[in-house]
Design goal:
The structure is a single chain. By secondary structure, the chain is α+β, with helices and mostly antiparallel strands. It folds into two domains: 56 residues, no CATH class; 96 residues, no CATH class. The chain has a five-stranded antiparallel β-sheet. Strands 1-7 form a two-stranded antiparallel sheet.
Length: 166
């Protein structure tokens, strides 16, 4: 199957596929909210979407040589750190994946490499439920734009006149 194709899956099966890729807390909340409440349908759809995405995402070395054209399938984030996953472990386990890591917004030292999904999930790193797969080139461009906006906002805040003293 290629990225974009959707295998048929139940919510329960999606939860099992996602179990190694999402922290226990995040998965439990998603499963609980998929059963009851106003947002039940939203979480059912998210579970199916992400379960299918993980099931069909490229395995290790399948995107080798694509460089910035490699597809990023998952995004994890916590405390200003970002992990963009392009490939899952080809041996079926999820001890590691391959992707792009940006720690503390530092793009000069960001790098491609192996990422331990188990370590991410053990430390409560969240899987971004609103992330849509796109090329690594697009992800890098979005990060650059966000950083430029942050720098501009900081400069503007420093130049803004302070409130009048009372």
């Amino acid at each position: 199957m290629n990225v974009g194709e959707q295998p048929i899956m139940t919510v329960e099966a999606a939860g099992e596929v996602l179990r190694p890729f999402v922290s226990r807390q995040q998965l439990q909340v998603m499963l609980d909210l998929s059963r009851v409440g106003e947002e039940r349908r939203f979480f059912q759809e998210k579970l199916l979407e992400f379960g299918n995405r993980v099931a069909i995402m490229p395995q290790t070395y399948e995107q080798d040589g694509k460089g910035d054209e490699a597809m990023v399938c998952l995004h994890y984030f916590k405390d200003g750190n970002d992990w963009y996953i392009t490939e899952k472990d080809k041996d079926g386990g999820v001890t590691q994946a391959f992707g792009y890591t940006v720690l503390n917004g530092d793009t000069e030292n960001a790098e491609l490499g192996y990422i331990s999904i188990a370590e991410l999930t053990e430390h409560g790193v969240d899987c971004d439920l609103h992330f849509e797969p796109r090329s690594l080139r697009e992800v890098k461009a979005e990060i650059e734009v966000r950083q430029r906006h942050a720098v501009q906002s900081t400069r503007q805040a420093k130049r803004a006149p302070q409130g009048m003293e009372r």
